[in-house]
Design brief:
5 helices; 127 residues; 2 strands; single chain; two-stranded antiparallel sheet
Length: 127
C-alpha cells in the first residue's frame, strides 16, 4: 500500500510565512482590499499610530516570537517592521508605522505590570 505523507508546517514556518506576508503588503495600494479580500479598507492621512494601533503592534510582535531570547536583534527588528506594516495596512495608513520604539513600549508595559500599575498601562496604551 502507498502512503501519502502530509507535511504540516511547523509553528515556526507558519509564523515566518505571516511575517513575510506582512512585509510584502503594499501600503500604496488604492483601493485597498482587506487581507481576506472580503472588503475594502478606507485610507486616511494620519501619520502617527493611535494607542490602539501601538497595542496591536505589540501584541503581534509578541505573538510572532519577539520575546524569544534566542532571536538576534535584526530578527526582532524584522518582526517589529512586519507587525507595524500589517497594522498600518489593516487600519488604512498610507505608510508603515514607526517600529523602532516597540522595544521601549514593551519595556514600559512590562515595568508597569511588574509594579502592578495596571491602570497606568491602560491609560498609556488604551485611551
Amino acid at each position: 500500500p502507498e502512503f501519502l505523507i502530509i507535511n504540516t508546517p511547523t509553528k515556526y514556518e507558519i509564523t515566518q510565512q505571516r511575517i513575510s506576508s506582512a512585509l510584502s503588503l503594499d501600503l500604496k495600494l488604492y483601493p485597498r482590499p482587506s487581507r481576506d479580500q472580503s472588503t475594502t479598507i478606507s485610507l486616511h492621512h494620519h501619520k502617527q499610530a493611535k494607542a490602539s494601533d501601538r497595542v496591536m503592534i505589540i501584541f503581534t510582535c509578541k505573538r510572532w516570537g519577539y520575546d524569544n531570547p534566542l532571536l538576534s536583534y535584526s530578527n526582532r527588528i524584522r518582526i517589529c517592521r512586519a507587525a507595524a506594516s500589517q497594522v498600518a495596512y489593516d487600519n488604512g495608513y498610507s505608510s508603515i508605522l514607526s517600529y523602532h520604539q516597540v522595544s521601549v513600549w514593551i519595556k514600559q508595559i512590562d515595568k508597569f505590570l511588574k509594579l502592578r500599575h495596571h491602570t497606568q498601562v491602560i491609560y498609556m496604551y488604551c485611551t
